[in-house]
């Protein structure tokens, strides 16, 4: 087996972080793979909404190609797929089922599915919505990489026939996310794209507290919020913040909020990247509760748990400054020890080598 592996990613986007969390995940992971000496090619569908919002059009740590159609992908990049030791097809890729079938047919090495949206994916499969993954493809992938761990991995293997389901959680890039000296502008902030199922928690944990504590300062950053949302006057709104501004946004908050989509809450073991990013910036987190959260942070000492307006207001007014700083320091230490992009690159290479070693080992002679 070669010391340096050749990876090809077919992902949603690496060039634009607009309205998605995929780009920052791919950027950190792929940069670390390249630093380890591996070769990486990223193939991305060229779509208008990302073309208008490209904050990293040409990443220096991988070969990046945009394709306009499935036909162009097949015509121009079959050799890339055939030459790869590992091809990784991501969730929410346009025409993802067809892309997966093509990759499986062309590849001479391994092919994996990288699910950055596992709870959403499983809910879609249960509803018969095969937007980017179909049940019959799952057993054909050599590896199912999941943003969600816990019992979800067993469901993927036992119910859907995945040959190897492994957790590859989101991560943080410590070169981009670290404590920054900044004026504290807000008592509580939140960053996330709008979703119907997450909005009630945002209402309960930030907007209602803002209405009750008019002297408090709050901020919400993220696109696609409908016009009907009533923003209290003490809530600052940002339609979109590029990754280059995330660190300052977190550093300008006394506390930051994490709220979780229903599918992820039901699945458990599905940390959001905002948890790791905020912790790396030294900003203490107030989060809703879900199964498995305690495996990422110690509850009460590394992260604060809430769900109601009274919880939020109690933390904002009742946590002394030295205690607030200790919570932030403990969470940052945990993240840097376990949840950086370098950790994920090591895990991905380890999974890849395990399967390649197994396939290279001759079957025992009976």
Short description:
This protein has 366 residues and is an alpha/beta fold.
What keyword list fits this structure?
single chain, 13 helices, 7-stranded parallel beta sheet, 366 residues, 6-stranded parallel beta sheet
H/E element sequence: EHEHEHEHEHEHEEHEEHEHHEEHHH
Q: Low-confidence parts, pLDDT < 50 over ≥5 residues? A: none
Number of strands: 13
User: What is the rounded Rg?
Assistant: 21 Å
Give the helix tally: 13
Strand order of the largest sheet: 3-2-1-4-5-6-7
Amino-to-carboxy terminus distance: 26 Å
Characterize the overall form: globular
Describe this structure in words.
The protein is an alpha/beta fold and 366 residues long. The chain contains 13 helices and 13 strands. The strands form two sheets. The protein has a seven-stranded parallel beta sheet, with helices on both faces. The protein has a six-stranded parallel beta sheet with strand order 10-9-8-11-12-13, sandwiched between helices. β1 (6-11), α1 and β2 form a beta-alpha-beta unit.
């Amino acid at each position: 087996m070669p010391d340096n592996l050749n990876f090809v990613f077919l992902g949603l986007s690496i060039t634009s972080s607009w309205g998605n969390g995929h780009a920052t995940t791919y950027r950190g992971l792929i940069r670390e793979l390249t630093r380890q000496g591996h070769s990486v090619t990223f193939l991305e569908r060229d779509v208008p909404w990302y073309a208008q919002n490209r904050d990293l059009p040409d990443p220096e740590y991988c070969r990046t190609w945009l394709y306009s159609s499935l036909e162009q992908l097949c015509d121009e990049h079959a050799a890339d797929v055939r030459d790869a030791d590992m091809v990784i097809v991501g969730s929410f890729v346009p025409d993802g089922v067809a892309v997966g079938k093509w990759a499986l047919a062309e590849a001479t090495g391994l092919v994996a599915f990288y699910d950055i949206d596992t709870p959403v994916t499983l809910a879609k499969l249960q509803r018969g919505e095969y937007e980017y993954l179909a049940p019959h493809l799952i057993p054909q992938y050599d590896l199912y990489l999941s943003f969600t761990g816990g019992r979800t991995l067993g469901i993927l293997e036992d119910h859907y026939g995945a040959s190897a389901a492994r957790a590859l959680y989101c991560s943080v890039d410590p070169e981009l996310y670290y404590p920054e000296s900044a004026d504290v502008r807000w008592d509580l902030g939140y960053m996330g794209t709008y979703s119907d199922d997450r909005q009630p928690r945002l209402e309960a944990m930030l907007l209602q507290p803002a209405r009750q504590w008019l002297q408090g300062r709050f901020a919400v950053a993220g696109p696609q919020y409908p016009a009907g949302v009533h923003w209290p006057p003490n809530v600052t709104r940002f339609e979109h913040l590029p990754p280059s501004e995330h660190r300052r946004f977190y550093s300008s908050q006394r506390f930051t909020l994490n709220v979780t989509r229903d599918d992820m809450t039901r699945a458990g073991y599905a940390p959001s990247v905002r948890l790791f990013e905020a912790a790396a910036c030294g900003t203490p987190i107030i989060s809703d509760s879900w199964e498995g959260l305690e495996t990422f942070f110690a509850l009460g000492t590394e992260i604060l748990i809430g769900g109601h307006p009274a919880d939020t207001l109690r933390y904002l007014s009742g946590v002394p400054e030295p205690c607030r700083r200790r919570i932030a320091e403990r969470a940052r230490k945990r993240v840097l020890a376990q949840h950086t992009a370098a950790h994920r690159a090591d895990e991905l290479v380890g999974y890849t080598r395990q399967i390649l070693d197994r396939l290279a080992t001759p079957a025992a002679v009976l």
